[in-house]
Design brief:
Two copies of one chain form a homodimer. The first copy, chain A, is α/β, with parallel strands linked by helices. In chain A, strands 2, 3, 5, 6, 8 and 10 form a six-stranded antiparallel beta sheet that branches. Chain A is built from eight helices and 15 strands. The longest helix of chain A has 23 residues. Chain A folds into two domains: 148 residues, Galactose-binding domain-like (Jelly Rolls, Sandwich), CATH 2.60.120; 186 residues, SGNH hydrolase (Rossmann fold), CATH 3.40.50. In chain A, α4 packs across α8 and α6 runs parallel beside α7. Helix content of chain A is 25%, strand content 22%. Chain A is globular, with a radius of gyration of 21 Å. Chains A and B meet through α1, α2, β6 and α8 of A and α1, α2, β6 and α8 of B.
Chain lengths: 366, 366
């Protein structure tokens, strides 16, 4: 046998990294127009805008929060169609630039089909890492039956534009979406934002949204969600959600930051949301706790403060606040769950989702 | 509260992406010199070379195999030291260039500490994606006790040079390594090569090497491991391993390719290795099987052929060949396990390792 031609020396896949949409009669749709529905955005946005905080907040937000609010973590587009092929045309606010997060996770889109509770992965955008725009076939099906489609938008990048390409003449309708009364708002860190999932659908809030019939509003701000009161006041302008999850300990570092911010943040929310269930989740372990007793001790001190804060509020009469210990969410082999000792991979996120699912279901049922 | 300075608008971590080795009195060591041991390379290599196939094969190899043999998938450096800080200096053969694999996975190095069976992750190299060389602190410990250190080298890139930086005067010794008689050679595809683990240690052969006291030789060749007889003849020049794993179905596509290559490949190996346990593993499901019955049917046809081939060889008197059905390795939610429907994430690789561990232990014990 002679040598084979090998065109993709560094690509691990027989599929070309860039899959241009084939020359077919595509009709391009705006996701801001019906029957498309945008999930995961807390505030009403004008067409063309995808921002996870108010467009014009009453107070100046911390710069990191203000910038990262444009990242579309947890934002989803949902619709029903019998299209056998779904394409997307994307204009990013920037290019892929992270060494421990894939371009597909930072800037890509993935698609799931089926109803909540029975969704299956159907495709991810593959595109040049260096490009700030792409047009690709996201998924293709052998049959043209009607399906509910959910697209998960980029975790660590903003979008200047998004269009959805479907074959002309295909069926297109609104898909069922959970009522606003079942919203779950999750505030936190880079981990909450989805760092470092391999593709958007594997961020833990997106995994949970496939299992629980509730709209998740993902307010994770990488390195910047530090429990600032102006952020709490901005979040409190949302209509009261069913559940609010507080998952920002990893951004606090020193216990002083947690002591200073947590009681104030919770008080601001509770004043505006008297009936919302609040779940305070302590941090999952960092890998270095396996050999660094001080790192472990710092986490346990932070955990104790959060537990005590919740207990104090409950004693004072607030029966709608609960503490969840993040210590065991990742399991005994927690050092295997992150890319860098801190940021979860799809493995870590799947375990976090597994551990959070039942507590959230119980709170929703109350 | 005024706005905060936010210096890293797109980075999800408070740790700088590039961590230069601090100005300390580092002594740079060559991993090709004792007491360092290189694991995962089948053939003896001169200092400076890390290649997963013979340097000068007797026959011309398929170009893809020949190129990717330089990728250091499954190659490990092991040593014992009391160094409180371990640095690496790396010259890559190329830069990060994949959209669905991180730079840490394609071109990075990660470190584990502890003995086989009790290893914990201790750090990964963070570096500029655009660079073809880096010098970084790989891990740092609060104490200077003696530890066994295993470094996992890049999955999808070759190394032109590698040096290990330790504080001058630290203890340095050889670490225990499994005997050559317990080698497990794994031949296969991009999945076998580790696409798309977030960091090298999460490729399934590297996960298994932390659990089973055996040296794994990872001969996965992305898109190019197609069961060619010249590749079989090259592999058969290795000293007989304890176990050989055949995991290349995903590169065969049409059943004809499997029919043409599998019996020939196995016969070549068996002629040279009469006592080696051979495990033929059929492919894990692609995500599209959830909605594409033809894709599922193709895999089942391929699986049946592999099962029948093994049964035929056993009937003919070869009691040292076994078939393992890959259908269930990923679990019921197999569509969640890959980045692109085909290439496993850390989640998929952890499940593959979980499913392969006991079968491999049983074969080693025979």
């Amino acid at each position: 046998m002679t040598t084979r031609t090998h065109k993709r020396k560094s690509a691990p896949t027989p599929v070309a990294a860039t899959t241009p949409a084939p020359k077919e009669d595509l009709h391009w749709h705006s996701p801001w127009e019906p029957p498309f529905r945008i999930l995961g955005l807390g505030w009403e946005m004008p067409a063309g805008s995808l921002r996870r905080m108010p467009l014009k907040p009453a107070e100046t937000l911390p710069e990191g929060v203000d910038v990262q609010a444009w990242h579309t973590a947890g934002v989803q587009i949902r619709f029903r169609t019998d299209a056998a092929r779904i394409s997307v045309r994307v204009k990013l606010k920037g290019v892929h630039g992270m060494d421990h997060l894939t371009a597909t996770g930072q800037c890509g889109i993935d698609a799931y089909i089926g109803p909540t509770g029975a969704m299956t992965f159907a495709g991810v955008t593959r595109f040049s890492r260096a490009a700030d725009a792409y047009q690709v076939t996201l998924c293709a099906f052998p049959t043209a039956e009607r399906r509910t489609v959910t697209l998960n938008l980029p975790l660590y990048q903003g979008l200047d534009d998004l269009a959805i390409g479907l074959p002309s003449g295909c069926h297109l309708a609104a898909a069922p979406c959970p009522p606003k009364s079942r919203r779950i708002v999750v505030y936190g860190t880079s981990i909450t934002q989805g760092g470092c999932a391999s593709r958007p659908g594997m961020a833990y809030t997106n995994i949970l949204s496939r299992r629980i019939d509730a709209e998740f509003i993902t307010l994770g701000f990488s390195g910047s969600g530090r429990g600032e009161p102006e952020v709490a006041r901005a979040i409190a302008t949302l209509p009261p959600p069913a559940v609010f999850v507080m998952d920002y300990e990893a951004n606090c570092h020193a216990i002083e930051n947690l002591r200073r911010t947590l009681p104030v943040f919770l008080a601001i929310l509770r004043r505006c949301w008297p009936r919302t269930q609040i779940l305070v989740v302590s941090k999952v372990p960092y890998a270095r706790e396996a050999y660094d007793a001080d790192a472990r001790e710092r986490r346990l001190v932070n955990r104790a403060f959060q537990r005590q804060t919740v207990a104090r509020l409950r004693r004072a009469g607030d029966s709608r606040i609960t503490f969840l210990d993040g210590s065991n969410l990742l399991g005994r082999d927690y050092t295997e769950c992150s890319v860098d000792g801190a940021h979860q991979t799809d493995l870590g996120f799947m375990r976090m989702a597994n551990g959070l699912e039942q507590p959230l279901r119980r709170l929703l049922a109350r």
